[in-house]
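Figure 2 data, in text form.
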Amino acid sequence: MVSGVRTDVNRIPDFDPPQRPKRNKYASACAILASMTSILMGYDIGVMSGAGIFIQDDLKISDVQLEILMGIINLYSLLGSAAAGRTSDWVGRRYTIVIASAIFFVGALLMGFATNYAFLMVGRFVAGIGVGYALLIAPVYTAEVSPASCRGFLTSFPEVFVNIGVLLGYVSNYAFSKLPLDLGWRFMLGVGAIPSVFLAVGVLAMPESPRWLVLQGRLGDARRVLDKTSDSKEEAQLRLADIKEAAGIPEDCNEDVVRMTKRSTGQGVWKELFLHPTPTVLHILIAGVGIHFFQQASGIDTIVLYSPKIFEKAGITSKSDKLLATVAVGFSKTIFILVSTFLLDRVGRRPLLLSSVGGTIVCLGGLGTSLTIIDHSEQKLIWATALAILATLSYVACFSIGMGPIPWVYSSEIFPLRLRAQGTSMGTGMNRLISGIISMTFLSLSHAITMGGAFFLFTGMAMISWVFFFTLLPETQGKTLEEMQGLFGTFFKWRSTAWELEMKKQKRPLLAAE
C-alpha cells in the first residue's frame, strides 16, 4: 500500500473486455430477402438431377441430349449475368432482383407445360436468363448493404439459399417420383414458379443499396439506409464518406441530392476493366474471375446434377434408392454451408478456402479411385460402393465449407465501387461458362475416359486451384469495401512500375482510387 493506494498485483482489473458488436438485424433481414432469390437457381439444379431420369424415359432422348438439357441453362445464364450488371447500374439492385424472379417464373411455367424436347429447351433458355440475373445481383446487393463486421456472414447467404434450393429440388424429385411418368417431371419443374412470386413481392420491402444510391447522387437516401444497416452512427458516417470518396463526391458535400457525371453511372467500365486496367484492377480482375473458374473446374456440378448416375455406377440400381442417396447429398451440402457462414468472419476467407480445397482434393481422389476399382471388378464390391458414397458426401461437405460460398463473397467485395456490378458479372459469367461446359460434357467425358478418370481430372484441377488461391488471393476479412484496393496490386509490381512511368510520360496525375 503506497499513499493509501492498493497495489495488489493479483487484483482483477475493474473493466470489461471489449464486446463483439451485435449482428445488425436490419442488414441481416435485407441480406436474407435478397439471397432468397438464389433458391431459384438451386432448385433448378437440384430438381433436374432427378427429373432428367424421367425426362429421358418419357421423351426418349439420348445421353447427349440429356447432358445438353442439364447444362445448357448455365450458358443461357451467361446472358442473364451480362445483362444484370448493366441493368443493376441502370434501375438499381432491388428492382433487378424483381426482374430475376419474374423471368424465372415464366421459365418455370414453360418447362412445366413443355410437350416436347424443343419446348423444354425454350423454357430452359428463359429460366437461364433469370438464373443469371439472380446469381449476379444477390451477392452484390448483400455485400453493399452489409457492415464490415458481418459482411462475410451475410454475403454467404446466397450460397446458403442455393444449397437450400438444391435440397428442395432433391426432395421434389422424390415426392413427385410416384406420379405417372408424363406428369412427375412436369410437376418437378413447374412448382419452381411458386417461390418466385413470393420473392418478387418480398424484395419490394427492401431498401435500395446505399452504394447505388450514392452513384445516383441520392446522398440523403443513402445516409438513411446506412444508418439502419451499420453497427453505429459513427460507422454509418465513415461508410458514407468512403463511398462518396470512391464515387468522386467531395467529402464536405452534405446535400441530399447531387448531380452525377456519366462516368459515375456505369459508363466506361469495360474500358477500365480490360483496355486500360491499373495494376490493382488487373489483380482484382484475375482474382475475381479466377476464383469462379476454379470453383466450377473442380466438378461440383457433376455431383449435383449427375449424382443419380454416379450412384448407379457405384452399384445402386433402384430409382428410389438413387433419389434417396441424392437427398443425402443435398443435406450434406446444406448443413456444411450453414457451418461455413459462421466461420467466414471468424476464421477468414483465405484459411477456409485453402483447407476446403485441400479436402476436395482428397475426396475427389477417393471417388475416382473407388469408381475405377468398381469399373474393373467383375463382382460387386460393397466396400468400394461405400467408399464412393462416402467420398461423394465428403466432397460436397468440404466444398460447401469454403469453395462453395467464398467465390461469391470474395468477388462481390473486392471490386471498386464503380466496377463492382459489371466486374462481378464477369466472375459470374466465368462461373456459368465453366459450369455449362462441364455439365454438358460429363456423360460424354465419362464414356471416353471412364467416370473414375473424369474425377481424377477434376482432382488435378483442384490441385492447380490450391496453388492459384495460395499465390494470388489476399485475406479480406474485416476490411471495408473501400479498403479492398490496398490489398491488391503488389503481385504485379513489374507492371505497376511500367504503368507509373507511362503515366508520367503522359503527364497524367495518379488518381487516389487507382
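Caption note: The domain at 25-214+266-487 is CATH 1.20.1250.20 (Growth Hormone; Chain: A;).
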